[in-house]
Amino acid sequence: MASAGSPPVPPAGSWRVIVAGLDQDYLGKPFEPIPQLLAIAEYITKTLAICMVCGAPANHTQRLVASSERVLVGAQGTYEARCRHCFDPRLGQ
After folding, report:
1. What are the backbone angles phi and psi of residue 79, rounded to the nearest 5°?
2. 61: nearest Cα among 2, 52, 69
3. Is residue 78 within 8 Å of residue 52, measured between CB atoms?
4. What is the pTM of this model?
């Protein structure tokens, strides 16, 4: 039951939540919190990019510059989409 002044809580199952994000980092390791959200989701629509090397469906993010940081923000030309075949996790290290 909602307390006075707070909005009513809809019944369970009446919410639709849409989430977008990467599920792997540049090494191909799980990128939190997306794996946990995928585990509890009822429906999942996973969209893929297009590999910048061969044009196949791409499910990896290839880091193009060397860095030990897990995330590099705001740097254009730092990442590109890669398919499983063209992805090389050693390239960004």
Report:
1. -130, 155
2. 52
3. no
4. 0.70
Predicted confidence (pLDDT) per residue in 1-59, tens digit: 555 667 777 777 677 888 888 889 988 899 889 989 888 888 889 899 999 999 999 99
Q: Which residue has the tokens 């989409």?
A: 81
DSSP code at position 24? B
Taking alpha carbons only, the member of 47, 53, 44, 57 closest to residue 91 is 53
Which residue, 67, 65, 73, 60, is CA-closest to 31?
60
3-state secondary structure of 92: coil
What are the C-alpha distances in Å from 10 to residues 2, 7, 13, 14, 19?
A: 10, 9, 8, 6, 19
The residue assigned the tokens 């510059």 is 65
